[in-house]
Specification:
By secondary structure, this protein is α/β, with parallel strands linked by helices. The protein contains seven helices and nine strands. Strand 2, helix 2 (39-52) and strand 3 form a beta-alpha-beta unit.
Length: 268
């Protein structure tokens, strides 16, 4: 996928974020920075990446960060860039899902604020700090043909709920629609500056958030079978493959896109 530089992944302790970190290493990244609120999970992922890497001077950093904290997010991004010397790929995978039972009429302000703070504000804080760094650095050259690729590539994780309405998902749906909008406007702002910004919109993905045997798993499994054309769950690795593609040189003409990775759900 023409990956040779340094990556930063939020929500890297599990699920799609963890799968992205692994994929970056497998594709030859020189270093990966991991951000997550779960410090123990970060250490486990860091150990896994270090054992996987074939890069002689591979660097792996980890930062226990609450994405709602503007200063901590900015500091972590700056520390990564300072250690690596540059920041080539940024994946905003940190997020939370929440059902507003009864819809907007029954939604609590605290629940609304919490979801927006993590899913939208956290994405913005990281994107802003990353863009500031990328605007200061030189272009990364392709390891395949030597051409100048980009100053940096940012991929934001939205959702199928960022493209269509989803019942009882007032805050989540609003936050993910906003992430798609943020992606588009930032892509336009920096297209001529060598920074590409895209979004990925996953559908039903089997992550650790889906507890086996739970009511949520049973209800969601029925939804997957009856409403998703491909008829099965997606995996974090399938989403990560698309994300890392969008980061690397093989997608060099793409910016402002919101790619559905949802088994065909949003084609209906």
């Amino acid at each position: 996928m023409d990956i040779s530089g340094f990556a930063l992944v939020t929500g890297a302790g599990s699920g799609i974020g963890k799968a992205c970190a692994v994929s970056f290493v497998e594709e030859g990244a020189a270093g990966v920075a991991l951000l997550d609120i779960n410090g123990k999970a970060l250490e486990d992922v860091k150990e896994k990446l270090t054992s996987l890497s074939q890069h002689e001077e591979f660097q792996c950093l980890s930062f226990e960060v609450d994405m709602r904290n503007e200063k901590d997010v900015a500091d972590a991004v700056q520390n990564c860039a300072r250690t690596f010397g540059r920041l080539d790929y940024v994946v905003n995978a940190a997020g939370i899902a929440f059902k507003n039972i009864g819809g907007a009429a029954c939604a609590e302000t605290t629940d609304w604020q919490r979801v927006l703070d993590v899913n939208l504000n956290g994405t913005f804080y990281c994107l802003r700090a990353a863009a500031q760094q990328m605007l200061r650095q030189s272009y990364l050259e392709s390891v395949i043909d030597g051409r100048s690729l980009q100053r940096g590539s940012i991929v934001n994780i939205a959702s199928l709920a960022g493209l269509v309405g989803v019942t009882q998902s007032t805050a989540y749906c609003a936050s993910k629609h906003a992430v798609v909008g943020l992606t588009k406007t930032t892509a336009l702002d920096y297209a001529k500056e060598g920074i590409r910004v895209n979004a990925v919109c996953p559908g039903m993905i089997k992550t650790p958030l889906i507890v086996p045997g739970s009511e949520i798993e049973r209800a969601t499994t029925d939804f997957v079978k009856t409403r998703t054309p491909i008829g099965r769950w997606g995996t974090p690795e399938e989403v990560a493959n698309v994300i890392v593609f969008l980061c690397g040189g093989r997608s060099s003409l793409m910016t402002g896109a919101s790619l559905s990775v949802d088994g065909g759900y949003t084609t209906q």
